[in-house]
């Protein structure tokens, strides 16, 4: 990735990390009007950054969070003493004569921070496989897929606009947002040869459709009563669960 693209991803990640805090803080200081103002500004900034990444830098299907958190245990590189002996695997391991079990020899025991339970060959293979997955370029998007990703990016803005037009109690913003999400996923479903990161992102978006059951006005009219009834049944009839459900 180029340096400007990395900066866009960094700013986008910062916005996603602080948006809830900014909304709550603004509501506490400036009230409901200030809260909605900061929501609109943050969602507008996020949409602009994501559209730049999509249309200008051809970033493909974008994940949330934009920068995948680093798993330091999995990404820990081999230490110098491991690298020296990696070329001679026979010196690093010992194969049992009767059990054929492969164990690390005592002479090549690494430092405490880099020890693991697998053989050196397994660790090298897993590290190379993770490096390949992280360095895979984004899948090129055609016109249909670009439109689908643009719908997903602009959906929060359209949802906020519909809330301002029809109000928070109307079904129209809820339906509009659901239609845009489903349309985006259906258009992206035809895309083949996705890498692992992109497939995980599409699965995450599909699972997030369940949140529509917990969003007003659907939650207020249908989900709330059923969820509270289920919690009461669990509290009354399932031992040990009542404290949590109440």
TrEMBL record:
GO terms for cellular component: peroxisomal membrane. Residues 74-140 are annotated as: Disordered. It is found in: Peroxisome membrane. Its main location: membrane. One of its GO terms (biological process) is peroxisome organization. It comes from the Eukaryota. Keywords: Peroxisome, Peroxisome biogenesis. This is Peroxisomal membrane protein PEX16. The gene is Pex16.
